[in-house]
């Protein structure tokens, strides 16, 4: 709890005791009040993590009714507050009642300062643990999606939700995105979320295999089918029987092989090279490419009929630069991972590194980020990884000017709304959720015409 100030609220109507308690603690920001109204006001204003509450408050200083009412109101206002109640001697019953109502603990009067100090310290500790738990739970929910994919960007969360939705249906999926954006990770996530999860996930990068070998890789070959075919070998398609076949860089498959792939997709049987008997294969196809397949279809480099077989669902994956905030998030994740594996002395990023990570355009996307962080963790000779360790220390980071960014966003939204409302000012204001005068002011400021 070092980052957050520890705030303690003392609710006690006996001013002498109040003063005594004030001086009993060290390291807390203390507020002391004497009645219910002041206690609730302090709870709202200060948000103390821990409260000590005397049950005997005015107008019922000798009973407990006002104390219980205060306890109830405080818990209703901020249920995570740790409230420790003081019960007069012999008042075990009221102490138990307070606990049943949600108090954290109780102490008996007359006060033993040391004992109370321990109870208060423990209450802060428990509060901090609970807060940390909530924070972690929220993080896990918000940031990891679909098979270990890490993201907090709405653009990417939309992609993972789409994939989760199409996973159960046996449709072919085409993933479009630049290199290193996580296409294979998503394909694997799709497989894991599909009814074929028990089958195997077989990936093949069509660009990484020479054209002459690609056919044999995909379809397999019989012994003696060509020079060097010393034994019968099953291809990747067969290996994906009952599972998912991920064809990465599908745009790199040469035309003659596209014909063979199409035939497989139509008939769901393959023939190994040099083989004569058709082998039925039941597999789901997921493909990916960084190329513009539409353009390739248009100029005849990719078969249109194959495209429609492969692209029953098309999912576009945003580049890392299009997911604001994700670069920093992923960088911290990779730093933790590689520090654990390779250089435990490294504990985090220096401020200049974080600024550089945010400003860099990441042409190689997540793969580039992972590689830079990995190398930096190995190279770093201090506890903190610097921009220089990441090899990102050239030039000034582009300044972030919130005003300019907001203006640009305002202009864009107003132009869109004007177009949709066909220049009608009332309609435009309604679409934007602002008043007509506000819209006029903005249009004047930005020099926009209806
Ligand atoms: N959102 C993410 N969270 C965690 N790790 C990620 C994420 N995106 C990508 N990665 C990791 O980055 C690396 C590259 O991802 P992947 O291989 O899936 O990209 P790709 O788009 O298939 O790349 P290519 O087209 O170059 O094959 C992998 O190590 C992957 O685990």
TrEMBL record:
> Is DNA-binding there in the keyword field?
yes
PROSITE patterns, alphabetized: RESPONSE_REGULATORY, SIGMA54_INTERACT_2, SIGMA54_INTERACT_3, SIGMA54_INTERACT_4
Tell me the Gene3D superfamilies matching this sequence: 1.10.8.60, 3.40.50.2300, Homeodomain-like, P-loop containing nucleotide triphosphate hydrolases
Under the GO molecular function aspect, what terms does this record hold?
ATP binding; sequence-specific DNA binding
InterPro entries tied to this protein: AAA+_ATPase, AAA_lid_NorR, CheY-like_superfamily, Homeodomain-like_sf, HTH_Fis, P-loop_NTPase, PEP-CTERM_resp_reg, Sig_transdc_resp-reg_receiver
The UniProt entry, under SMART domains, shows: AAA, REC
Judging by the UniProt lineage, the source's domain of life is: Bacteria
Keywords assigned by UniProt, alphabetized: Activator, ATP-binding, DNA-binding, Nucleotide-binding, Transcription, Transcription regulation, Two-component regulatory system
A GO BP annotation: phosphorelay signal transduction system
A Pfam entry, by short name:
AAA_lid_14
What is this protein's record name?
PEP-CTERM-box response regulator transcription factor
Q: Which taxonomic lineage does the organism of this UniProt entry have?
A: Bacteria, Pseudomonadati, Pseudomonadota, Alphaproteobacteria, Sphingomonadales
């Amino acid at each position: 709890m070092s980052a957050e100030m520890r705030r303690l609220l003392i609710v006690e109507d006996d001013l002498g005791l109040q003063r005594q308690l004030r001086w009993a603690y060290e390291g807390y920001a203390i507020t002391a009040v004497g009645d219910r109204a002041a206690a609730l006001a302090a709870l709202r204003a200060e948000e103390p993590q821990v409260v000590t509450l005397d049950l005997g408050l005015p107008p019922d200083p000798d009973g407990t009714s006002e104390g219980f009412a205060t306890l109830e109101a405080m818990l209703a206002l901020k249920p995570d507050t740790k409230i420790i109640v003081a019960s007069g001697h012999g008042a075990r019953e009221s102490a138990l009642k307070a606990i049943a109502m949600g108090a954290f603990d109780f102490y008996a009067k007359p006060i033993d300062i040391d004992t109370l100090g321990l109870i208060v310290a423990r209450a802060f500790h428990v509060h901090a643990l609970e807060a940390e738990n909530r924070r972690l739970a929220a993080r896990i929910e918000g940031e990891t999606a679909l098979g270990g994919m890490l993201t907090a960007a709405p653009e990417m969360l939309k992609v993972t939700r789409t994939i989760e939705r199409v996973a159960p249906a046996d449709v072919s999926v085409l993933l479009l995105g630049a290199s290193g954006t996580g296409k294979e990770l998503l394909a694997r996530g799709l497989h894991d979320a599909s009814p074929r999860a028990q089958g195997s996930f077989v990936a093949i990068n069509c660009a990484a295999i020479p054209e002459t070998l690609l056919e044999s890789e995909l379809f397999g070959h019989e012994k003696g089918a060509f020079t060097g075919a010393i034994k019968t070998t099953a291809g990747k398609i067969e290996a994906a029987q009952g599972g998912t076949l991920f064809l990465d860089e599908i745009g790199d498959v040469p035309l003659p092989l596209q014909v063979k792939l199409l035939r497989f997709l139509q008939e769901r049987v393959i023939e190994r090279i040099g083989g004569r008997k058709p082998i039925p294969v039941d597999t789901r196809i997921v493909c990916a490419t960084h190329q513009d397949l539409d353009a390739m279809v248009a100029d005849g480099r990719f078969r249109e009929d194959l495209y429609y077989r492969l692209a029953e669902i098309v999912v576009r994956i945003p580049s890392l630069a299009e997911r604001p905030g994700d670069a920093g998030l992923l960088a911290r994740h990779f730093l933790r991972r590689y520090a654990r594996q390779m250089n435990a002395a490294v504990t985090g990023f220096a401020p200049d590194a974080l600024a550089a990570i945010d400003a860099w355009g990441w042409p190689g996307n997540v793969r580039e980020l992972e590689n830079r962080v990995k190398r930096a963790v190995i190279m770093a000779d201090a506890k903190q990884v610097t921009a220089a360790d990441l090899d990102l220390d050239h030039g000034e980071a582009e300044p972030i000017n919130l005003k300019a960014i907001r203006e640009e966003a305002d202009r864009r939204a107003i132009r869109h709304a004007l177009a949709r409302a066909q220049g009608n000012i009332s309609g435009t204001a309604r679409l934007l959720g602002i008043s007509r005068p506000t819209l006029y002011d903005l249009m004047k400021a930005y020099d926009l015409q209806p």
